[in-house]
Amino acid sequence: MDSQSYQPYPDDDGQSSQSILGQLSQFGQNASNNIQKSFSDMSTQGWLRLIMVVCTYLLIRPHIIKYSTKHAVKKLEEQDVKDKKFAEDQVAKMSPNDLRGLGAVEEEDVDADEGADGSKANWGSKARVRQRKTLRKILEAEEQRRYEEESDEDIRDLLE
C-alpha cells in the first residue's frame, strides 16, 4: 500500500465524519442502483424465472392460507375438547360433602400481609384469620344497615 492509504471515515476526534443521515442516504442510493441494475441487465431467462416465481406464489398462496386456517381451527377445537373434559373431571372430583358445604375449604387469604413492615405486633395466623372474619362481619353489618336506611327512605318518599 502507498503511504497515503484510504481511510473512509477518519476525523480529528477519531469519530466518523458521515452522519447517520448520510449513511442512510447512501444505503438507499445503493439499494436503488442495485435494483435498477438487476432489472436492466436481466436476460429473457431471468424474466421468465421471475414471472414463474410470482405466478406460482399467487396461485399457491390462497391454498396455503386455507390449509393453515383449517389446521388452526382444528387445533382450537381439540383444545376446547380438552378444556371441557378437564372441567368435567374437576366437577366430578367434588365430593357430596363439598356440594353440601360441609367440607368447604376456607377462603384463601387474599388480605395477606406479605409486605409487613414489622412495626405491628406479630400475630399468629389464627389471630389474623379471626381479625379478618370480624372485620368482614362488621363491614357486612354496616352494609346491611345502609341498605335498610335506603329502603326506609324510599318507602317514606313513596308515602309522601
UniProtKB/TrEMBL annotation:
Keywords: Membrane, Transmembrane, Transmembrane helix. It comes from the Eukaryota. The chain crosses the membrane at residues 47-65. One of its GO terms (biological process) is protein transport. Residues 105-116 have a biased composition (Acidic residues). Pfam families: PGA2. The keyword Membrane applies. Residues 97-130 are annotated as: Disordered. PANTHER family: PROCESSING OF GAS1 AND ALP PROTEIN 2. This is DUF1531-domain-containing protein. It comes from Hypocrea atroviridis (strain ATCC 20476 / IMI 206040).
